Amino acid sequence: MPAPENTFKSALASGKMLYGCWTGFADPYATEILATAGFDWLVIDGEHAPNDLRSIMAQLQVMDGKSSMPIVRLPMGEAWLIKQVLDVGAQTLLIPMVESAAEARDLVRAMRYPPEGIRGSGAALARASRFSDIPDYVATANDQMCLLVQVETVSGIAALEEIARVDGVDGVFIGPSDLAADMGHLGDSSRPEVQAAIEDALSAIRAAGKAPGILAVDHDTALTYRDWGAQFLAVGIDVVMLATAARSLRERWRDG
Ligand SMILES: O=C(O)C(=O)C[C@H](O)[C@@H](O)CO
Fold first, then answer.
1. Contact, 109 vs 118, CB < 8 A?
2. Which residues of the chain form beta strands (DSSP E)?
3. Which end of the chain is more exposed for a tag (fewer CB within 10 A), N or C?
4. Best of 51, 95, 150, 177 for a ligand 1 pocket test (most atoms within 8 Å of beta carbon)
5. 66: closest CA among 42, 48, 84?
6. Which residue puts its alpha carbon closest to atom 2 of ligand 1?
7. pLDDT mean over 67-76
8. Which of ligand 1's atoms lies nearest the C-alpha of 217?
9. Ligand 1 within 6 A of 176 CB?
């Protein structure tokens, strides 16, 4: 029995449009609710949400068997972190702040067992192998790994084509907030020069034969990014949805 199919990787390769949502509560109960909404994918955010290895694992557990496919974002692309999160069952990783093809190649190797890579072989006790219930897990896991790199700095954009063409990079996510910040427009990704950079980047990723991804919580902006070629498109953040709805409800009763 081989390693479980990475259905997100398969869907990405099919070219299908995939709509996603960010999860930031770092709680399996909230993620389980979100997984009933019908999104194609959910990001379990280990960069900007208070997640740790156990909370990431708990969210992977509640997503098992759901139609929404999990993507785990790590705070940085460190090999030891990648080893741990793959062993608890992640198959698709989103790694922020990638700025060179060399970094991307290192990430590909960190996600794969030898000889293709350096992933430590501890599958015997790992959730990923169903605790050794998948006897040929180590022999088949590499093919199910899906790497999404985030390009979100001026340096990263300059190296975008080389990064996208790295064998083993399945998709490139453009981070509008961090890119705007690095371009000198902290907090404002709507600036024309930032938008131009995003449009060119999404096009270049497609030209390299890889899947472009991005996030936009504003509906019209998300439509624009889809028109510009985004294939895995995040259209919401759970924390923002709750906070916005709660404040709006209270405002409706402000004057009784
Ligand atoms: O730079 C960005 O934009 C992203 O990487 C997405 C954000 O990190 C996401 O957390 C929403 O703010």
1. yes
2. 18-23, 41-45, 69-73, 92-95, 146-151, 169-174, 211-215, 232-237
3. C
4. 177
5. 42
6. 175
7. 98
8. 11
9. yes
One-letter amino acid for residue 76 of the chain:
M
Rounded Cα–Cα distance for residues 137 and 209 (Å)? 29
**Rounded CA gap, 39 and 238, in Å?**
12
**Residue 46 counted as domain residue:** yes
Domain-embedded: residue 2: no
Domain with 169 in it: 7-255
The answer to whether the CB of 175 is under 6 A from ligand 1 is: yes
Q: Is 48 a catalytic residue?
A: yes
Does any ligand 1 atom lie closer than 6 A to the CB of residue 152?
Answer: yes
pLDDT in tens, 74-91: 999 999 999 999 999 999
* pTM of this structure: 0.97
Average model confidence (pLDDT) across the chain: 98
**Identified catalytic residue from 7, 19, 32, 48:** 48
Alpha carbons within 13 angstroms on the beta-carbon side of residue 67 total 9
* Residue 99 near ligand 1, beta carbon < 6 Å: no
Assess whether the C-beta atom of 215 lies below 6 angstroms from ligand 1: yes
User: Looking at the domain assignment, is residue 1 inside a domain?
Assistant: no
ipTM confidence score: 0.94
- Structural domain total, the chain: 1
